[in-house]
Amino acid sequence: MARLLSLIVCSLFSVTAFSIPLNNIEAMLPAGSQLALSVFNTNSGEQIVGRDDDILLPPASTQKVVTALAASLYLPQDFAFETKVLQSGKDIVFKFDGDPTLKRKDLQLLVSALKAKGIRQIRGDVWLDGEIFTGYERAVGWPWDILGVCYSAPSSAITLERNCVQGSIYSEKSKRQTRVFVPEHQPIEISTNALALTKDQQKDQHCDLELHYDSNNHYQLSGCLAHRTSPLPLKFAVQNPQKYMSDVLASELKKAAISVKGKIRIGAPSGQRSFIAMHKSAPRDALLNTMLKRSDNLIADNILKTLGHRYFDQAGSFSNGAAAIKAILKQQANIDLDTAVMVDGSGLSRNNRMTAAQLMDVVQYVYTHPQIGLLAMLPVSGVDGTLKYRSSVRHAPLKNKLTAKTGSLYGSYNLAGILRNDKGQDILVVQLVTNYHIPASDDRPSNVASPITQFERELYQALLTSSLTTR
Predict the structure, then answer these.
(1) pTM of this prediction?
(2) Which is catalytic among the residues 38, 64, 293, 349?
(3) pLDDT tens column, 25-83
(4) Which of 33, 65, 227, 385 is most buried by its number of CB atoms within 10 A?
(5) CB 264 within 8 A of CB 75
(6) Is 64 a catalytic residue?
(7) Who's near 378: CB < 8 A, 6+ residues apart?
């Protein structure tokens, strides 16, 4: 009897010692944070956790999995963006269809094709035709304060070098004024009246570096920047993609000794067109791989608009693109996103709303249909993409165990994907953390991880060891 009692006590102690309540892990988040969590065991098909998974929250970049699934189901595998050069009477037409990967060297090859056709003078106008897209180039809900940086570059049919330009700002100790540098080949203007200060001066004056810009691709830096021994790299979103392309194309035509009698115009001329040359982007899956691994906003939004164009047979926009994605997923995957709020393909808009359960429907479809190839495109913890350096999962025992899309906005930290646990079982998980804000009074030592890092580390280790409980 004593031996039996001892075994029962040991058994109970073992269960208690290796059970980690979800409430204890959630308590690691700052007060006021909100967690929605959905977890499924693929072996049993049972839901392990369903914490507030029916509440609409900002999905951030986990929404790219939704965009990628719709693209995989609707666009042919050999789909590629095409940029064409055509002739219409005396005019030359550059027809763009939203290639987010078009580079200047690609444009140079198209210009070279004109010369190879014996064209030394364009007797009419040069047209930049981007009429395949319409409407806003920035979705409703994109915050004004990030529109000047490259991860929120405008989603336009006429796109070059990711609608992103680079420069640098210098703040030397010996000088009060900062100075800027921009490579000559970029047709933009940048000026600065920002002051170079010590870190203490900058803190005392509550003075930050600010960026102002206009629709002519003119940028102005103001405010303050702490002294640096090396220049601060800058990446600006092109504010007027059409003007930028026009200026670059004018330069490339001049380099190629091709004169233009008319003007470079935006739009599409009437009349018949004859083909001269074409550049094709990488095919669909290569584009989606980049979009998911690197969390590329421009690819996601231009694919969304392309879906809207193709599905509704009209110029693509944020509005019809979002409607197309919902229709495609309902018709081809039986995934109902009617109550979700989708205004872009990237998840950058603060207006997007989706439940953890809806995202789980998408993750489950991706998992149960490996032939579409999206699983291999998701970042892997500690290995590649946006999970390569994510502090919570980059090291053992979680390294190489989690395959998931990340998503971050101000106050939001999300994940959606698959964890392989210690039993060799695949666990599907969607994590939406919102209203996450560390109080100004936080006095953690510098060597102590942030609350979100501690939360994620404990959550995924508990899932790894099958020790998570909801009691």
Answers:
(1) 0.94
(2) 64
(3) 999 999 999 999 999 999 999 999 999 999 999 999 999 999 999 999 999 999 999 99
(4) 65
(5) no
(6) yes
(7) 65, 292, 293, 385, 403, 404, 405, 417, 418
Angle of helix 63-74 versus helix 297-312 axis, rounded to 10 = 40
**Percent of the chain residues past pLDDT 70, beyond the cut:** 96
What does the pLDDT look like over 192-203, one tens digit per residue? 999 999 999 999
Query: How many Cβ atoms from other residues are within 10 Å of residue 12's Cβ?
Result: 10
- Annotated active-site residue in 33, 38, 61, 72: 61
Cα four-point dihedral sign 366, 372, 378, 380: positive
pLDDT band at 185 (very low <50, low <70, confident <90, very high): very high
Written as six digits, the tokens of 342 are 């989708």
Q: Could you give all domains of the chain from N- to C-terminal order, each with its CATH number?
A: 26-76+285-438+446-465 (3.40.710.10), 82-135+242-279 (3.50.80.20), 161-237 (no CATH)
Residue 295 annotated to the active site: yes
Among candidate residues 72, 152, 171, 295, the one labeled active-site is 295
Please enumerate in sequence order all residues whose Cβ is within 8 A of that of 394, keeping only pairs 6 or more positions apart, or say none. Answer: 381, 382, 387, 388
